[in-house]
From TrEMBL:
Transmembrane segments: none annotated. This is Helix-turn-helix domain-containing protein. Pfam families: SLFN_AlbA_2 (PF04326). Residues 20-135 form the Schlafen AlbA-2 domain. It comes from Belliella marina. InterPro entries: Schlafen_AlbA_2_dom, Schlafen_AlbA_2_dom_sf.
């Protein structure tokens, strides 16, 4: 029998027997530290992930408990997603009575455009499979990339030395655009740098495009070509890499050199056209790709 008016898949049997996963979590009264902040952390994790349902008042072994035993403290659990979560996420609280016992179902909708955190300490969580993980600074940044809140290429490279710009490449770029002004102003106009109070700062996009050595500032700013013998990558004694080349420089240089490299490295195959009786040349890897 369906017991939720918001989710027709939720039955009493599901609440008691379903394995906890990315989208479903139980929290019982007897668990350690089951304070409103603990529930808030779990809801934040779901908000930052793919949403889900948290059943409060159902123990891990499926026992239906009674939240009314909390008395006046129950209001803290009713209001925790307003009091403890920032920004206010799309969470519906459903209060259900089962055989005279009260439980809460928190229905959490996914939000792909925002990062949620605790109001009091700004901690950020993410639900991964059946666990809730607190994120460090790097993990938060990765989550911002995933949600497209932050774009890597728009970040400022604060330590960049402008003497490391490839001036010859920049001059070629200016010629292509028929631009006669200052080079740094051109970078600003093309959204590759910013100017504030007369001071220029370059974005990571500008480093990748026009630095002589982008890897000096951005780790792994390179392209790697690996060719295997066969169709499956092997390791150990069956290691089957037959060619491994790395190209390190700015993006225009890499495109130019890799294009020449691939033309020299990849093969052309000839297939007989049975209708014309002629052999047609087919590249191993199309240049457009």
């Amino acid at each position: 029998m369906v017991i939720s008016k918001f989710n027709t898949q939720i039955t009493l049997e599901l609440l008691q027997t379903k394995r906890e996963n990315q989208y479903f979590e139980r929290k019982g009264l007897g668990e350690k530290d089951i304070a409103p902040t603990k529930i808030a952390n779990e809801l934040i994790g779901m908000l930052n992930a793919d949403g889900g349902v948290l059943a409060f008042g159902v123990s891990n072994d499926g026992e239906i408990q009674d939240l009314s035993s909390l008395g006046e403290k129950l209001s803290d659990y009713r209001n925790l997603f307003v009091d403890l979560i920032d920004p206010h996420g799309n969470i519906k609280l459903e209060e259900i009575e089962i055989e005279g016992k009260q439980i809460f179902l928190y229905h959490v909708d996914q939000d792909i455009e925002r990062i949620f955190k605790r109001k009091d300490n700004e901690q950020i969580f993410l639900r991964v499979d059946d666990r809730n993980k607190q994120l460090d600074r790097d993990a938060v940044r990765s989550l911002e990339y995933d949600k497209q809140i932050r774009k890597f290429e728009d970040e400022i490279e604060a330590e960049f030395d402008f003497d490391d710009l490839d001036t010859k490449l920049l001059n070629r770029y200016k010629e292509k655009l028929n631009y006669d002004g200052d080079t740094l102003e051109l970078l600003v106009k093309r959204h590759l740098a910013v100017r504030k109070d007369g001071v220029y700062k370059i974005k990571k996009a500008g480093v990748l495009l026009f630095a002589k050595d982008p890897e000096k500032y951005i780790t792994s700013a390179s392209l790697r070509y690996i060719r295997y013998e066969g169709t499956i990558a092997q390791v150990g004694t069956e290691h089957n890499v037959v060619k491994d080349e790395r190209f390190e420089n700015n993006i225009p240089w890499i495109i130019d050199h890799v294009k020449k490299f691939l033309k020299a490295t990849l093969k052309d195959y000839f297939f007989l056209d049975l209708e014309t009786g002629r052999f047609n040349k087919v590249p191993e890897y199309p240049e457009e790709a």
